[in-house]
Amino acid sequence: MSGMGGGWFDAMGGGWFDAMGGGWVDSAGGGGGGHGFAMRADRPMAAHRLDKINIDNAFPAFHPRYWDGDLLALSYLPKFFSFTDQAGKTWDQALVVDKPPPVVRSGLDGDSIDELLTMAVTERPEAMGEILNQHQNQQLCFLQLLMINHNSHPATYFAMKLVARVGEVVMMHFKRIHKRARPSQVCPTLYPPVAVPGHASYPAGHMVIATLTAACLKEITKGPDDAPTFAEALDLLAETIGLNRVIAGLHYRSDISAGAKLGKDTFEFLKQIKDYNEAIAAAKQEWARPQMP
Description:
This protein is mostly helical. It has a domain at about 100-285: Phosphatidic acid phosphatase type 2/haloperoxidase (Vanadium-containing Chloroperoxidase, domain 1). Helix content is about 50%, strand content about 0%. The protein has twelve helices and two strands; from the N terminus they run H-H-H-E-E-H-H-H-H-H-H-H-H-H. It has helices at about 70-75, 75-80, 90-95, 115-120, 125-135, 140-145, 155-180, 185, 205-220, 230-245, 255-270, 275-285, and strands at about 105, 110. It has a two-stranded parallel ribbon. The longest helix has 25 residues, at about 155-180.
C-alpha cells in the first residue's frame, strides 16, 4: 500500500507500515515481529531447561496486550462488510460518492490544472516538510498531536488502526468505481515530490483516513460533558493533510472534498456497529484516568 491506511509504522510504538494508514512498523517495540534476535551457538538459552514451567497455567490464552493491532483490525472487517443499517443497507449501499467534476485548464467550472501548477511553484517549497511527513505515516501526526503512543494508549492506538483499515477498504472501493487519473498524469510537469500512489485519484484516500481518524479521536478524547478537548486541532490537522496533497500535485481539490465527505459518512456508519463502539469505549477509558499530581 502507499501510505494511507492500514499499514503504518509507529516509530514511537505500534507497527504500522504504510504511509497513509494502517500497517505501520513499530521500531520502539510493539508486539509481534519485524526484528531478528540472535542466540549464541555455543551457549544457547535453549540449553537451560527451566524447572518451574507450569505448562497448563503459564499463558492460558494469548494476552490482549500482545496482539498486533494492525492484524487484529483486519479481523473486524467482516463485521463491517456484513453489517446492515436501519434502512437495511450494507456499507457499499449506504455510502455514496458523486461523480467528480471535469478537469479544466483554468477557471471555476471544474478542477483547474493551472491552479495546481501555481500552487506547485508558490506553496510547495514552504509545504515540503509537511508533505513528506504526512505522506509517510500520517497517523503519526495524530499521535504527536495527542502526545501518545501504543504503549501509553493501546486501546486508542487500536481504534486508529481499526478506522484506518476500514478507510482503506472504502476509499479503494470508490476509486475503482471512478477511476480518475492523477493530476500528474494529465500534466506531467506537476512532478509530485513523492511517489505517486498506485491507485486512482478520486476520492483522496489520505483525506478519507485523516477525516476518519480525526472523527474517531474526537469521540475518544471528549472531556467532561462531551467537551471537545482536541476537536479543533484534530480537524485542522486533517484539513492540512488534505490541502498538502493538492499542493503536492497528487490530488485535485474535489478529490479532497469527496474524501472528507466519505470519511464523515463512513464514521456515521461505523458508529452503528457494536464491535466498533466497544473499541471506542475501551479507548475512552484511557482518557478518563485521573491526572497525575
